[in-house]
Specification:
- By secondary structure, the chain is of the alpha+beta class.
- It folds into two domains: 64 residues, SH3 type barrels; 69 residues.
- Helices cover 57% and strands 16% of the residues.
- A four-stranded antiparallel β-sheet has the order 1-2-3-4, covered by helices on one side.
- Strand 3 and strand 4 form a beta hairpin.
- Helix 3 packs antiparallel against helix 4.
């Protein structure tokens, strides 16, 4: 009889653990990006392909695609969180192919801008680390070229926006 009760207790605790899996929040962890950067964070939630967390140093909230995390960080996120329930939308808007192309075009320009700004930020570090005058001039020319590319994309965005407003 004691072994039967013990078995029931083990099964019940297993079911309880399964149902409450990932509910011990907040979770403190170190997440690493695929490019090697890492950050001490407090994990808040996980959607299908995105994780939300706060940086421990200042409490600033961030969201990150799971594909951008290192393998170990993905494992940590998957271990601590089940997929959060997606909120139900009462009416799903119809997306026409023409609207989809416009959205892709705008998002492509935004992604290009983000990439260029990141490249510009990294060039500032290279400029500070330059050892010779020639290296400084080369990096300064690269910075100028990136700034021109940023202005070009911003002009394309403005042109596209004015075209949409017509």
């Amino acid at each position: 009889m004691k072994s039967f009760l013990f078995l029931i207790f083990i099964l019940a605790s297993g079911v309880w653990c399964y149902k409450n899996y990932g509910q011990n929040q907040p979770v403190h962890a170190t997440l690493s990006h695929t490019d090697g950067r890492s950050m001490e964070v407090v994990l808040l939630s996980r959607e299908q392909s995105q994780v939300t967390f706060k940086r421990q140093s200042d409490g600033k909230p961030f969201s990150c695609e799971l594909g951008d995390l290192s393998l170990l960080s993905k494992c940590k996120v998957y271990w601590y969180f089940k997929v959060s329930k997606v909120s139900k939308v009462s009416k799903v808007p119809t997306i026409t192919p023409q609207a989809r192309v416009k959205d892709l075009h705008i998002s492509g320009m935004n992604k290009t801008l983000v990439d260029l700004h990141e490249e510009l930020r990294l060039l500032d570090y290279r400029h500070a680390a330059a050892e010779t005058r020639a290296q400084e001039r080369t990096v300064a020319n690269d910075i100028e070229a990136i700034q021109l590319k940023i202005k070009k994309v911003e002009l394309k965005q403005a042109e596209h926006q004015s075209f949409l407003e017509r």
